[in-house]
Amino acid sequence: MGTAARTPEGAVEVAPGVHWIGAFDPDLRIFDIILRTANGTSYHAYAVRGSGGVAVIDTVKEEFADEFFRRLESVASYDEIRVIVLNHLEPDHTGALPELLRRAPQARLYISTRARSMLKGLLGGDSLTYTAVTTGDSLSLGDRNLQFLQTPYLHWPDTQCTYLPEAGILFSGDLFGCHFCDRRLFDDVVGDFRFSFDYYYAHIMRPFGAYVREALALIDPLPIRLIAPAHGPVLRGEPRRHLERYRVLSAPSRYGGQEPTLLVFYISAYGNTRHMAEAVAAGAESAGGVRVSLYDLEGSEVAPFVDLIEGADGIVIGSPTINGDAVKPVWDLLSSLAVVGVRGKLGAAFGSFGWSGEAVAMIEDRLRGLKLRVPVKGVRAKLVPTADELAECTALGEAMAQHLTGRNEAKSIDMAALA
Ligand code: FEO
Fold this sequence. Notes:
With 419 residues, this protein is an alpha/beta fold. It has 13 helices and 21 strands. It has two domains: 239 residues, Ribonuclease Z/Hydroxyacylglutathione hydrolase-like (Metallo-beta-lactamase, Chain A, 4-Layer Sandwich), CATH 3.60.15.10; 145 residues, Rossmann fold (3-Layer(aba) Sandwich), CATH 3.40.50. Helices cover 31% and strands 22% of the residues. Strands 1-2-7-8-9-10-11 form a seven-stranded mixed sheet, with no helix packed on it. The protein has a five-stranded mixed sheet with strand order 12-13-14-15-16. A five-stranded parallel sheet has the order 18-17-19-20-21, sandwiched between helices.
């Protein structure tokens, strides 16, 4: 019989004086509405003992508080707890905090400076006192220290990592975590969790690639012997391998050279919106300096298009209006963009319609809602686009190219008019 089915009853020592005191949730299949998991998840908390007292790093989801307290009590008494660090305020890590504070009222709470505005909303109560910390701050546990690294948006604004230099341990919160429940706990003995690690990154961290790269720059110089995340395997085998994986996953995704890229998507019932799309693409191409791609949404699943959009600088979307709405493949694409960073990219819309033509404005609104900039008014054509309407589409493509290359800002000044 292997060890797969055994749950450690007590705490698990991950390094001398550092214990895992978390909980396993093997029956979970959907986390936070959006994330699937084939074997559940785990909520990790840790107790760090120093000569001057004990620090508890994170807690667990409220339903699992009993497990957490049982494990905590096996390595520390409540009156020894001097410090509680919250690397992240989401309820799966703070569910047991109110009870922990009741049991260890002398403990001082440490949160990131960016967590301050979220603390009351999530945990209620005006009586919570805390110390807000950021990169460069540290606290002493006597013979050991906790150093803080502010790593915002991984995946909430409040997220931070805590580093224990004397043991080379990075308590990383959700960063480097995954929803993978294996009671053997350590990465070098659990089952193959690579798919889960990448899936978690894709759904949680991917929209924040630039912040991931900033976090890696902070973490890279640290001598790391073990990464202790808030979910999934504790990474002691080759912790740097997981840093490298994040580096690969967060690398900017660009195609070709340095020129801006524009993607023109369309879907067309009778060829009208398609003709408009071709005119948009031709206009952008004729403007020069932009790499233009043209895609029929009927020709692919959504996921590859989402990947393309992540690496593009601008998108233009064409849809007919059917029953007062843009069509489902367009909404499928737009509703899939939450997993990638699109803020600040350029967007535009166009489409043919029979009698009402709401789709273009709806797409523009959605693009703005996703924080794209929509610098050019969309083009609508009633049924078969006229030559003038196709010329408007060409102009739309040209204008988008000019915005992408910065040439739209160039002004031609008539000196004679100034005289
Ligand atoms: Fe595991 Fe973002 O909470």
